[in-house]
Amino acid sequence: MTRVVFLLVPQVHLLDLAGPAQVFSTAADLGLDYRTEYVADREDVPTAQGLPLRAGTEWPDLESGDLVLVPGWRSPKTAGGPRLTDAQVAQVQAHHARGGTVGSVCSGAFALGQAGLLDGRRCTTHHSLQDELARRFPAATVERDRLFTTDGRVVTSAGIASGIDLALHLVAVRHGPAAAAQIAREMVVYARRGGDAAQDSAMLRHRSHLSDAVHRVQDLIDVRFAEPLRLADLASAAGVSERTLTRRFTESTGLTPLRYQSVLRLERAEHLIAQGSPVESAARAVGFGDARMLRRLRSARFQS
Q1: Whole-number Å distance between alpha carbons of 109 and 242
Q2: Where is the HTH araC/xylS-type domain (predicted)?
Q3: Dist CA 16 CA 129 (whole Å)
Q4: Which pLDDT tens digit goes with each residue over 51-72?
Q5: Are 12 and 48 in contact (CB under 8 A)?
Q6: CA-based nearest residue to 15, from 68, 70, 69, 72
Q7: What are residue 69's DSSP bridge partners?
Q8: How confident is the model at residue 134 (pLDDT cuts 50, 70, 90)?
Q9: Cα of 105 vs its chain's centroid, Å
Q10: What domains are there in the chain, each with its CATH number?
Q11: 3-state secondary structure 122-189
Q12: What is the mean pLDDT of residues 88-97?
């Protein structure tokens, strides 16, 4: 049996905890021998979302094959953030020293840093906390724009939904990618992402503007990016002229509608190629007539 012990601190984020916990719980439902347990300094644990949790205060006897995972909490930038107690630090350090794996989701990386486990190792956290993590723990190598990292039985993830990706990765390492894929399907996870995937997608990266018309056009392109799309049809959907759409779209996203569609196609093609699809098949799947355009876009991306 593999124990997965979640170490909870006050103001823990529910999804940082619930995502990985669901992965290992689903793994157990599918016949893999996992047991999830929850420990904290006190039985009652307040969460950042206001729903109180109940945890044990006694640590189980852990073996080298077990996992200790620290979910993130509300920003550690404020008043230094929560810290592990001396007893909790000792438990985390001892587990790793015995050959066990320790991990974090989001700001949980600060707890691993407090325990001295990030020194000389690669790690990551939520993109909004990376500078602070690097400042507090200068002996660590903070890798930016990654979903998760693994280094010397220390695993860290970017946070929130990426905790699911990290947990699926750990299952795949122990039981193979087929088991992880089965769990992902049960959880209705759209796609398993590798650790080197970016923390945001093109569909989100260009959505920080306030133009309703441009958002409507992006909604349309997001769904039909693999199809030929006429500028006139996009402008009609937005209720503006073609010239106005092009101007507003460029002002809002930095891209023309056609370029935005190409970015989506390229990102999806890269995912398909990473999953083993030949370049030619990936090109056809995302709407390129042949692989030449895809190769040119990939080459330009790698050179930029």
Answers
A1: 48
A2: 215-304
A3: 15
A4: 999 999 999 999 999 999 999 9
A5: yes
A6: 72
A7: 6, 103
A8: very high
A9: 9
A10: 2-186 (3.40.50.880), 202-303 (1.10.10.60)
A11: EECCCCCCHHHHHHHCCCCEECCCCCEEEECCEEEECCCCHHHHHHHHHHHHHHCHHHHHHHHHHCCC
A12: 97
